[in-house]
C-alpha cells in the first residue's frame, strides 16, 4: 500500500474507518426485563428505564473501544426490521404459522401485513433515537432501520389497501422520505438502511425460486433501485445514508449465498447511497471482483471482513491482506472495516459471548488503526 493513499483513521464524516453494523447482543438484564414485561410483571415505564440504563452502559463501552459511531444495540427491538415496519401507518404485525427459514433453523413465528395506506406520522423509534442522541456526546449517534424494499419483500400486501403496485411503491417511498426527515429533525446525521433483498438477489437458488413464482429478479432489482432512490431523494445534504447488504443473520446461521456480481452494477452505479456495508466474512459472499463497478469517488465501501457469527478472532494479517486485495478495485481511501453484520439481528442473538463481541469490535478498531495510520 502506497503511503500517499493513506488517510487518518479519524475521518470526520461517516462511515468511519472502523465502524459497526448496529445490533449488539442483548444483555441478561435486558432479556430478563423483556420477559418480565411480556409476563406483565413490570410496567412499560419500568422496562424503558432498564433499557435506558443498559443502552447507556453499552454506549460507554463502544466509546471506550474506540468506535466513532455509537448505536443503541437495537436493545428495544425483537427484530431488526419488523419492529420498525409494523409501526408505520397502514402496517400491522401478526402471528404466522411458521417462522423464516434459515440454514438448518427457523425463526419464531411473526409477520407483517399492509392493511391501509402507508404513511409516517408518530413513530416510537423517534424517541428511541432521541435518547441515543442525548447520550452520544461528541460521538456520532447511528440509527439503523430496514430498507423500504423490506416491506415489499417481507410484507403481505392486502388488496383492500393496494390493488395497484405502482401506487404502493409511490406511497412507500414518500413514507420513507418523511421518516428520513423526521430522524434528521431529531438530530440524526448517520442513518443506515438494512437490506436482505440484495443478498437474495445475489443467490442463484433464490433467483430460481423467484422465477418459479413468476418474478423476474432483474426487474425486481430495478424496481427496488427506483424505490430506494426515491426514498432518499430529498435527504438533507449533511445526512449520511448507508446501506448494509445482508445474507441473513439468525443465531449465527444464514439465509442466502452468492457473490455480488448479479447486482453489482445496479448497487454501485444505480443506488444513490453514500456507502455500502458488504458482507465478506466467508466464501458465501464471493470475491472482490464485483467492486470493479464502483466508479464513484465519493462512494465508501465498508468491508465486513470480521464475522459476528463466531467468537474466534481473525488473524489480523489475513484481514490486512484482504483489504489490500480489495484496494485493487477500490481506492484505499474509499474503504473502511467492520463486522459483516450485527451481533443480534433478532433479540435471541448470535452464538458468542458479550466479551467476545467487544473483542471483535476492538479487533476492528485495532486493525483499522494499523492500516489507516
From TrEMBL:
InterPro entries: Met_Synth_C/arc, UROD/MetE-like_sf
Entry superkingdom: Bacteria
Gene Ontology MF terms: 5-methyltetrahydropteroyltriglutamate-homocysteine S-methyltransferase activity; zinc ion binding
Domain Cobalamin-independent methionine synthase MetE C-terminal/archaeal: 20-369
GO BP: methionine biosynthetic process
PANTHER family for this protein: METHIONINE SYNTHASE
UniProt protein name: Cobalamin-independent methionine synthase MetE C-terminal/archaeal domain-containing protein
